[in-house]
């Protein structure tokens, strides 16, 4: 079993320290907040999409190192991602942490550093907050787009 102190590798610390897109957006299409009652961590995101593709993103992260690391990778990779890709990486993270599923690959492979969190159920919610918030923001934008696409009566 992994010891808690083994979760915090130098690479994980470096990713958390280099968190991009920490400025909130002046005119987001959607804002979403995810909070863990267990540890008190909070992630709030602003999102702008052009159709199905993220074109701008901002975040405020008040989370443990694990939540910061996940948010750092998301902040680095989110612009240019599609809604489907973001839902897929969120689902992969949930499966990896909760069911021993495969690690994220490709440009998301740094998230594999968080695989050992699967052994610590209490640390999983803060690690997943950014994915919860991003998926909420995407759903808000899709709802707005669906509403504006309906024909006037």
Instruction: Give the proportion of residues in helices.
Output: 40-55%
The main sheet comes to: 3 strands, antiparallel
How many individual helices? 5
Distance N to C terminus:
62 Å
Given as residue ranges, the uncertain stretches (5+ residues, pLDDT < 50) are: none
- CATH fold-level name: Sufe protein. Chain: A
- Give, in order, the helices and strands: HHEEEHHH
Give average pLDDT, whole number. 91
Query: Can you list the strand order of the major beta sheet?
Result: 1-2-3
Radius of gyration: 16 Å
Number of E-state strands = 3
Range of strand content: 15-25%
Architecture (CATH level 2) name:
Alpha-Beta Complex
Query: What is the highest CATH level, the class?
Result: Alpha Beta
Number of domains: 1
Structural class by helix and strand composition: alpha+beta
Overall 3D form = globular
Task: Give a brief rundown of this model.
Helices cover 44% and strands 16% of the residues. By secondary structure, it is α+β, with helices and mostly antiparallel strands. The chain has one domain: Sufe protein. Chain: A (Alpha-Beta Complex).
Short descriptors:
153 residues; 3 strands; 5 helices; single chain; alpha+beta; Sufe protein. Chain: A
How does this structure look, described?
There is one protein chain. The chain has five helices and three strands. The chain has 153 residues and is α+β, with helices and mostly antiparallel strands. It has a single domain (4-140), classed as Alpha-Beta Complex (Sufe protein. Chain: A). It has a three-stranded antiparallel sheet with strand order 1-2-3. Strand 2 (42-50) and strand 3 form a beta hairpin. Helix 2 (10-17) crosses helix 3, helix 3 runs parallel beside helix 5 and helix 4 (83-99) packs antiparallel against helix 5. The longest helix has 26 residues, at 124-149. The mean pLDDT is 91.
């Amino acid at each position: 079993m992994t010891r808690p102190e083994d979760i915090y590798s130098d690479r994980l610390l470096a990713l958390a320290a280099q968190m991009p897109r920490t400025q909130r957006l002046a005119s987001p299409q959607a804002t979403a907040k995810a909070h863990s009652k267990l540890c008190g961590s909070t992630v709030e995101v602003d999102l702008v999409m052009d159709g199905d593709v993220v074109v701008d993103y901002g975040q405020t992260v008040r989370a443990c190192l694990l939540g910061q690391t996940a948010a750092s990778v998301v902040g680095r990779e989110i612009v240019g991602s599609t809604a489907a890709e973001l839902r897929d990486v969120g689902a992969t993270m949930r499966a990896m942490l909760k069911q021993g599923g495969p690690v994220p690959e490709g440009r998301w492979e740094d998230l594999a550093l968080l695989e050992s969190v699967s052994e610590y159920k209490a640390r999983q919610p803060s690690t997943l907050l950014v994915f919860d918030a991003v998926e909420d923001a995407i759903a808000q934008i899709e709802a707005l787009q669906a509403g504006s696409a309906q024909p006037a009566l």
